[in-house]
Amino acid sequence: MSQSEARVGVFLIAANRLLREALARVLRSKGGFHITDACGFSHDVHRKILASRANVLVLEGELATQPDFPLVRDLLREIPDLRIVLIGMSEQENMFLDCVRAGAYGYVLRDASAIDVVNAVRAVSQGEAICPPSLTLALFRHFARSSSTTSNTKMRLDFGLSRREQQMVPMIAQGLTNKEIAGQLNIAEQTVKNHVHRMLRRVGVNDRLEALAVFRMQGAYLD
To answer: Where along the chain do its domains lie?
Structure first.
């Protein structure tokens, strides 16, 4: 056992005493872990966690799903290096993404085994993140949506483009004509021409290709 493994302190919070004791026994048996405390949720649990100097907090799902995750967010403000593993969790994508946004590094489903929990604790203590393979796609989808939203916001702020003009930028990048854009957006071709003219003026260029080059240099999402 390395010295770094011996320093992994784990704080367990679960409503069910049998679950707490079982997880504590399994973690101790695998070596490399020190159980700093194992308890249910209480009014002073925040203070206990701060005093424990734990590296990893294992938190049962029912206790983790309070609105806006106040315990998770408060702890991470005070202990930024604390790694949080949520166990007994739902397979719903929205719940998973909310937990990731709150700051959880490990997300273990309710049908996981004790060994799955141990592996998750070990992984996050080594700087990794753990989630079920079935939810990995949700992360990619979320990242793609966030990238698109961020880029559209950037175009609006940097260039003053309207929402309609933001819609048109990817179509222009695809090489669509004014008539084709008008057909897709169900607006008049002259309206498209007016939008394109205003867009070029705001960006300070003379044609579509120059505008696209500027958007790309600014990191805009054009696909």
So the answer is: 3-134, 149-217
Strand order in the sheet with 56-60: 33-39, 8-13, 56-60, 83-89, 106-109
Q: Distance between CA atoms of 110 and 58, rounded to whole angstroms?
A: 13
pTM value > 0.90: no
CB distance 99 to 60 below 8 Å: no
Checking if the pLDDT of 208 tops 50, the result is yes
The answer, yes or no, to whether residue 4 has pLDDT greater than 50, is no
3-state helix, strand, coil in the chain (%, to 5): 60, 15, 25
Look up the CATH number of domain 149-217.
1.10.10.10
The correct CATH number of 3-134 out of 3.40.50.300, 3.90.226.10, 2.40.340.10, 3.40.50.2300 is 3.40.50.2300
Q: Are 49 and 160 within 8 A, CB to CB?
A: no
User: How far is it, in rounded angstroms, from Cα 146 to Cα 141?
Assistant: 9
Provide the 8-state DSSP code for 15: S
